[in-house]
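Sample entry (145 residues):
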Amino acid sequence: MHLLIYLLFLLIGSTITLFIWKYSQSSFLKEFHKEQRGISYLKRSLEKMLDEIKSVGSDVTKEANGKKESLEKLIKEADQRIKELNLLLRKQEEDPKYMKIYQLHKEGKSLNEIARKVNMNKGEIELILRLPPRFRSSSEAGWSC
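Predicted structure, serialized as tokens:
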């Protein structure tokens, strides 16, 4: 009889232990699945954010390339204008009228005298004297430092 009671207590204890273990396993599995769903949600969110970042990066790159092309075009246009201006300056330096203006200025003549002698207005003479020929020294062109 003692053996029977002992076996009965052993059976009850084992059942209770099994029930507690199963309950704790069930709770653990529920928590595990909940965490797994959370991780999956975070992963999807991060993938979506990464796609958005790639899209924005692509847009920025396209815009930067467009601006680069525009700048390159503007630089080419500016270089062409500089060449044209240099050509005009060379022509100006060879013009006898301009040479006479520089010579009269070097001789110390006033703007009014120079304007009268070359038949130009005073403003034009001032402008010409402010833009001395490129191939003369600044002292020849009337510049003083």
